[in-house]
Specification:
This protein is of the alpha+beta class. It contains nine helices and nine strands. InterPro entries: GAF-like_dom_sf (IPR029016), HTH_MetabolicPath_Reg (IPR050707), Tscrpt_reg_IclR_C (IPR014757), Tscrpt_reg_IclR_N (IPR005471), WH-like_DNA-bd_sf (IPR036388), WH_DNA-bd_sf (IPR036390).
């Protein structure tokens, strides 16, 4: 509750923190009324704060008029030494995949019509692009991880992306909506995606989905190398798919978040090695 003489900025900060503090492991999805009750903030005020937090990305709208913690808040939280369950499960497999292929490995998830790199492990090539370093966003249409995540997204997200401006990053970037639809459908059928010089010239990315126990796609694991798809893909697909299956098995008890095909991962208790350097 606001004290009678509390400065306005202090009141706003305290109430905003109260809204975020209403969420915990036992209350990961809440309605505005539930947030109001748990934070002791009037419903009308709670609704205004929740709307602002949704627009900023700290909260996300789920099913049944409920809200969950958003990926934007996760991005900020990466400044603190806390690791999510998806990362904890994936990092050992990422190191093994790097050792097997000697290529850069990345782990990603989707936020709306963009991808976010959750973690990366350096390969033997030169540094490539900041989009493949932890915490950075990347386009779904021009990357292999992006197409894997897009293939798992609902039709609303797909239609929004296809109807928007598909930016060309190189001459090879697929920017025609009809062609992209076909590529996403092909990705869904074959179980992996390939991007050949579409985000950066001469850079090949191969990616496969990571599934939870209910079959929902929780993220994508990808390999990045310099060269051409004809030389990079044949030797990489087998190890990549094996790594994706390994991570998926370890996440078999992780449920999907309400209303999202790519849910936010849970915090894990296990300790895993920390990758060194950027993704490539």
């Amino acid at each position: 509750m606001t004290t009678p003489h509390a400065p306005p900025d202090r009141s706003v900060v305290e109430r905003t923190l109260g809204v975020l503090g209403a969420f915990d492991t036992a209350h990961a999805s809440l309605t505005v009324s539930q947030i109001s009750s748990r934070s002791h903030i009037p419903v009308a005020t709670t609704y205004r704060i929740v709307s602002k937090l949704v627009s900023w990305g700290a909260l996300e709208r789920a099913e049944d008029n409920k809200y969950t913690i958003g990926l934007r808040l996760w991005e900020v939280s990466q400044l603190a030494p806390r690791h999510a369950g998806l990362r904890a499960a994936a990092v050992p497999a990422m190191f093994d995949l790097r050792s097997t292929t000697r290529r850069a490995v990345l782990l990603s998830t989707r936020d709306g019509t963009e991808g976010i790199c959750l973690e990366s492990v350096s390969g033997n090539a030169r540094p490539l692009h900041r989009s493949w370093s932890r915490g950075h966003r990347f386009p779904l249409h021009a990357t292999a991880c992006g197409r894997v995540l897009l293939a798992a997204a609902d039709t609303t997200v797909q239609d929004e992306l296809y109807g928007g401006d598909l930016r060309r990053y190189t001459e090879r970037t697929v920017h025609a909506p009809a062609v992209l639809r076909d590529l996403v459908a092909h990705t869904r059928r074959q179980g992996y995606a390939v991007s050949d010089g579409e985000l950066l010239n001469g850079v090949v990315e191969i990616a496969a989905p990571i599934h939870g126990g209910d079959g929902a796609v929780l993220g994508a694991i990808g390999l990045i190398t310099v060269g051409t798809a004809s030389t990079a893909v044949p030797d990489a697909v087998g190890p990549l798919l094996a790594a994706a299956r390994r991570v998926s098995r370890s996440l078999s008890d992780l449920p999907a978040a309400p209303g999202d095909a790519v849910p936010s991962p849970r915090t894990a208790r296990s300790r895993t090695p920390r990758p060194q350097g950027a993704c490539a």
